[in-house]
Amino acid sequence: MFPKGHPYYADVMGSHADVQAAKLDDVRDFFKRYYTPNNASLAIVGDIDIDNAKKLVEKYFGSIPRGPDVPSVQVQTPPITQERRAVMTDRVELPRVYLSWLTAPIFKPGDAEADVAAQILGSGKASRLYRSLVYDKKIAQDVSAGQQSLTLGSVFQVTATAKPGHTAEELETALNAQLDSLAKFGPTPEELDAAKNKITSSLIISLENLGGFS
Predict the structure, then answer these.
(1) For residue 20, which phi and psi values (nearest 5 degrees)?
(2) Bridge partners of residue 157, in order along the sequence
(3) Among residues 36, 164, 165, 184, which is most buried (max CB within 10 A)?
(4) Residue 191 belongs to what H/E stretch?
């Protein structure tokens, strides 16, 4: 989805070759540059006394020196102007189809709308894609849709796995029919309300546990 040279082109964790090539000085320099107070966030969760917590933070962390300024990544994500296809063959029993689009960066206009569309299309057994491909047509054994919201450009992806005896071409035709229908007629008020409620409840649930906000 992203071109060579883009921060999202390869695995952000790096490759095995990257790890093998790294020298001790490289690791130290990376740590000194990025693992600094001015490039970090401290989260304190629980029934705390705010004033006392601030004093403890200052006591235990205040002496750590500021590191060098870390400039934000400035990169333009070029749009995809024509269809791209890739076929991968492996020793698997069932074909799977992925449909992906570059979408708006996180918190930008279009990002929230894509989240809602993903909920309506492929979140749960009551979603449009599940009802159409799994229940009605019985050509897929699973289907999903999601918006991966990222800073430099997001990815909207629909995935479906065929049932035995059915093909990737059947899945693609059925997926496109549902996508076209949503684009042409839009969601129903009930679908829209349900999607918004599910997104809101998922966010609240994620905040119930330590680390759910990260």
Answers:
(1) -65, -35
(2) 100, 146
(3) 36
(4) helix 189-206
Within a domain: 122: yes
Assign residue 149 the CATH number of its domain: 3.30.830.10
CA distances for 30 relative to 22, 24, 64, 113, 212, angstroms:
11, 10, 17, 37, 27
- For residue range 36-73, what is the model confidence (pLDDT) as tens digits? 999 999 988 888 999 999 999 999 999 999 999 998 88
Q: Report yes or no: 171 and 95 within 8 Å, Cβ to Cβ.
A: yes
One domain for residues 52 and 138: no
- Total structural domains in the chain? 2
Asked, for residue 213, whether it belongs to a domain, the answer is no
The residue range of the domain holding 166 is 96-206
* Same domain as 130, residue 49: no
**Same structural domain for residues 54 and 134?**
no
In the chain, DSSP assigns E strands to: 96-103, 140-148, 154-162
CA 163 to chain centre: 26
The pLDDT tens digits of the residues spanning 160-211 come to 999 999 999 999 999 999 999 999 999 999 999 999 999 999 988 887 776 6
C-alpha pair distances (Å), 37 with each of 30, 52, 55, 57: 14, 20, 16, 12
123 and 53 assigned to the same domain: no
